[in-house]
Design brief:
The complex is a heterodimer of chains A (about 250) and B (about 325). Chain A is an alpha/beta fold. In chain A, about 30% of the residues lie in helices and about 30% in strands. Chain A has a single domain, classed as HUPs (Rossmann fold, 3-Layer(aba) Sandwich). The longest helix of chain B has 17 residues. Classes of the chains: A alpha/beta (about 250), B alpha/beta (about 325). The complex binds flavin-adenine dinucleotide (2 copies). One flavin-adenine dinucleotide binds next to β2, α1, β4, α3 and β6 of chain A.
């Protein structure tokens, strides 16, 4: 099966966010970037389903994103394509660049993560479905393929839905889909020598404009009490009379 | 501004987010001198229109089709986009639930509209909507404008407060949509709901437990407190990874994003990835034996103490308040 996996190069989850000088985005100084954690599930699934087919990685980003593509090659992807975009664009623009590249590859299956942990949009998968006219199943925790029929379990509030569709289609990977493997040191070395193809971005203009970025207001003076039976009673009183939540 | 508020229903039932979406649409319409309609899509859902009237929905558009008895993101997004075009709506509001996450991006592409997902605020500046949304796991917020004539906003559940208005009666009218076969390319063949358990994503009160409970056998303390509050049980990733609790209960960056009225974090340190999932809760209570635990930094109220002592006492006090 020929598979495309879209991987995003995102700031580490533990990154401390500092607003940049333009007041609209983060200050990239000292920020460590990693492969988007959900995309690790997508890549792992691609590796398990590929058989004799080709697994191609696509990433929209600047040269620094090659690091994430090299990680993907080290865990076993066959090909890696950097869709070069020096600028940070919105999800629609990213989805367009990905869709253009995917059209030329005609994969049987496109795997993306449930969301990219930078802007946390969870948009690219369903947008690709529209742009490529393919079915999409999101937040998938397991799936089976029989011929061209795909049956997936996906998360919904309060449980799971079992969804049936046909290949080719798009799956967005949720935690629980698999246990991603780690790259081995010799493979990391070998991946350094593997070629990374480059192609230009789709240059679709953004449809959103960031006006400003700010850090959330810090909570002022929480009422923190030492444990005692009286203070437990006081907490219940505060929740009931002050916060009025119980 | 002409606003279309998509009203989510599951199996013919409305959830709280339906009233939040209507209220947000009504407020936007009021502050721009615009108008709004509500949209119900499904099979046999017209009867729900009367439940929307108390929140100010005078005009309810209904799209019904037997094939919509089961959710299909293709068909429902086609219906929303078709109605938006027919009604010349230039703003579409959708709740950012798991179904909404499938719908909003598709509707946006169909309408050539810009989309701001997961909004926690909608304001008007010079007649334009400015949406606020958390990014980087809630560590920052951005204010975003949509630059296209058509605009889609998805709203984080539990954040927009639903408020009722007097004297509105709903008139339902049906709209027909020409579906293609491709609109039903995905079919929900089965829904497996966790019986008898409240989902953290929908609960108004959540009591979450962390590694400090030492083992799954001690989670009855968390369950008892959750029950006293009438809430749901949540968990940190440490506890889920250890196999003490199911992933469906995990709150945080790789779990669920929740914003209940009350979030009680018990023996949870407050790692950034955990805060990512719960920091937009209205009130946060932390219970931890370490006074320097980061969770106290986001807490409105807290008790420094041992959960094995605090939880039974707290459960008893809450039950006493409720006369139990
Ligand atoms: C420093 C920084 C600044 C940014 N500034 C802005 C900004 O000003 N405005 C703005 O709108 N966005 C900005 N972004 C977000 C970024 O440009 C894209 O929007 C992001 O790559 C897509 O994020 P998303 O949350 O929409 O993806 P989602 O829809 O959440 O991603 C879902 C899946 O799509 C795939 N995917 C997502 N992005 C890519 C990619 N780039 N390449 C390959 N696959 C991908 C992955 O499989 C991912 O799991 C910024 C990001 C960073 C790190
Ligand atoms: C990519 C990535 C994604 C992640 N996603 C998530 C996520 O979605 N959700 C999540 O929760 N985490 C997530 N994490 C993990 C996160 O970093 C923390 O490791 C995790 O939240 C810790 O769980 P904890 O607070 O239960 O345990 P700990 O950090 O071990 O904290 C236990 C706390 O209990 C207190 N304690 C101990 N005994 C008692 C007692 N008897 N009484 C009172 N207090 C006591 C301690 O003082 C301590 O503060 C993620 C990490 C990564 C790298």
């Amino acid at each position: 099966m020929n598979i495309v996996v879209c991987v995003s190069h995102t700031p580490d989850t533990a990154t401390k966010i500092v607003v940049g000088a333009d007041g609209k985005t983060i200050d990239p100084k000292g920020v460590k970037f990693i492969p988007n954690p959900y995309d690790e599930f997508a890549v792992e699934e691609g590796l398990r389903r590929r058989d004799s087919g080709t697994l191609t990685l696509l990433c929209v980003g600047d040269d620094s994103a090659k690091e994430t593509l090299r990680w993907g090659l080290a865990v076993g992807a066959d090909k890696a394509v950097l869709i070069k975009d020096a600028q940070r664009n919105d999800s629609f623009s990213v989805a367009n660049s990905l869709a253009e590249a995917i059209k030329g590859l005609s994969p049987d299956l496109v795997l993306v993560g449930r969301q990219s942990i930078d802007y946390d949009s969870a948009q690219v998968g369903p947008m690709l479905a529209e742009l490529l006219d393919l079915p999409v199943v999101s937040f998938v925790t397991s799936f089976q393929i029989n011929g061209t029929t795909l049956i997936a379990e996906r998360d919904v509030e309060g449980g799971k839905e079992v969804v049936e569709t046909t290949l080719p289609c798009i799956i967005t990977a949720q935690k629980g889909l698999n246990e991603p493997r780690y790259p081995k040191l010799p493979d990391i070395m070998k991946a350094k020598a593997k070629p990374i193809e480059e192609r230009p971005a789709a240059s679709t203009p953004d449809r959103t404009r960031t006006i400003g970025m700010r850090l959330p207001e810090k909570k002022q003076g929480g009422k923190i009490l030492e444990f005692s039976p009286e203070n437990v009673r006081e907490l219940v009183r505060l929740l009931h009379e002050e916060a009025k939540v119980i | 501004m002409t606003i279309l508020a998509y009203i989510e229903q599951r199996g013919g039932q409305l959830k709280k987010n339906a009233f939040e979406t209507i209220t947000a649409a009504r407020n936007l319409a009021a502050s721009t001198g615009g108008k709004f309609s509500a949209l119900l899509v499904g099979d046999g859902v017209a009867g729900l229109a009367s439940q929307l009237a108390p929140y100010g929905a005078a005009d309810v558009i209904v799209v019904e089709d037997a094939r919509l008895a089961q959710f299909s993101s293709g068909a429902v997004s086609t219906a929303i986009a078709a109605v938006a075009v027919a009604e010349s709506a230039n703003v579409v509001l959708i709740s950012n639930t798991l179904h909404g996450k499938d719908l909003a991006p598709r509707v946006a592409v169909k309408l050539s509209a810009g989309l701001v997902p997961d909004c926690v605020g909608l304001d008007i500046n010079d007649g334009n909507v400015v949406a606020t949304r958390p990014v980087f796991a809630g560590k920052a917020r951005v204010d975003v404008a949509v630059t296209t004539p058509n605009k889609v906003f998805s709203l984080r559940p539990n954040v927009f407060t639903a408020t009722a208005v007097e004297g509105v009666s709903a008139a339902a009218r049906s709209a027909s949509v020409n579906f293609g076969e491709k609109d039903f390319a995905t079919r929900v063949v089965e829904t497996k709901l966790n019986t008898g358990k409240k989902d953290v994503a929908e609960a108004d009160v959540i009591v979450s437990g962390g590694r400090g409970f030492k083992g799954p056998e001690n989670f009855n303390l968390v369950e008892n407190l959750a029950e006293a509050f009438g809430g749901a049980v949540g968990a940190s990733r440490a506890v889920v990874d250890a196999g003490w609790r199911p992933h469906s209960e995990q709150v945080g960056q790789t779990g669920k994003t929740v914003s209940p009225s009350l979030y009680v974090a018990c023996a949870i340190s407050g790692a950034v990835q955990h805060l990512a999932g719960m920091s937009s809760s209205k009130y946060i209570v932390a219970i931890n034996k370490d006074k320097d635990a980061p969770i106290f930094g986001v807490a409105d109220y807290g008790i420094i103490g041992d959960v094995f002592e605090v939880l039974p006492a707290l459960t008893q006090e809450v039950n006493a308040l409720h006369g139990k």
